[in-house]
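Could you please review the protein record set out just below?
***
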Amino acid sequence: MCGRSKGMRLFWRTMGLTLFLLAMVVQAWGVRLKDIANFGGVRSNDLVGYGLVVGLAGTGDKSGSQFTIQSMANMLESMGVKVDRSSLKPKNVAAVMVTAKMPASSRPGAKMDVTVSSVGDAASLFGGVLLLTPLKGVDGNVYALSQGPLAVGGYSAAGEASSASKNITTVARIPGGAVIERSVPFSFNEQKDVAIHLHVEDFSTAKQVTDSLNRAMGGQYARAQDASTVKLSVPERHQGDIVSLMASLENIEVRPDGRAKVVVDEKTGTVVLGSNVTLSKVAVSHGNLNVIVAEQPQVSQPGAFSQGQTTVTPQTQLAVREEQRRLVLMSGASIQELVDGLNAIGATPRDLISILRTMKSAGALHADLEVL
């Protein structure tokens, strides 16, 4: 128990020192603008389509999948083949949804990857081939066509009494499996101004980005619209050539700021503390009370040839164990001092979650506490 406690203390000291050093590196060197922001117009467009995967080795949809049978019949009839829908058995066919992300800069003839996901009760898509499937945007227009053999990153095999599988076999990808037929009507170079969307809403960061852009361009071309948006007016000398302008600006280094935050994942016991987390002077004592109740009934047998009866005598064992934890006074202006204070009371990751919550309720933890 003592060795485990020492190991936990060493872990938290190492984690605190690592985060502290990372924070110092970021503050000293900053980060590139393109790593903390997106540029207006540079985005992807989601496409989706419904299709059929054929050529499966008996792992397709079951006979109860009526929409698969209907899709098979409609496809065959469109090719001039008359079929009896009641006789169709789709065990080698699976109904799927095909999804893709088309960049705004894509042009007709370009290729992109697609993801194929089963929507029926197919057991596996391994070895299947996707038939020609149109991919539509949110406006209902067809932007790409997809077709080709599937790449499944796993396998699945089953017998009468056992089965084996690796990864998910009902989701597959087709590298370069879609050909773009229509581009999104957007011209990046024709914009008069460009919106820069920051990943974090913070007024200090927005002001810093604005000042850095104006210094680099030699004029008041950038202005912050809110805590996460900076509007950049394109100078006349760069009209029609915004790509060159953004290539020179996206590598500008800034020092992003933000609110102090503590993120807790209760499912895994993971706790991440930001470098700006501080706390007021507070006394913390943390301990556990364990009560163990065990029932061990005893059977009492009567003597030979006696008139007695067999009876059960209950016996209860009760044990109470309470951990003795000292009251520790903690106060600090850095994450290192906070970690050292928690190590002083031997806090495990699970204990740390409870301590941080209590600190936040007491008003001693000056940070946003987010529980995942």
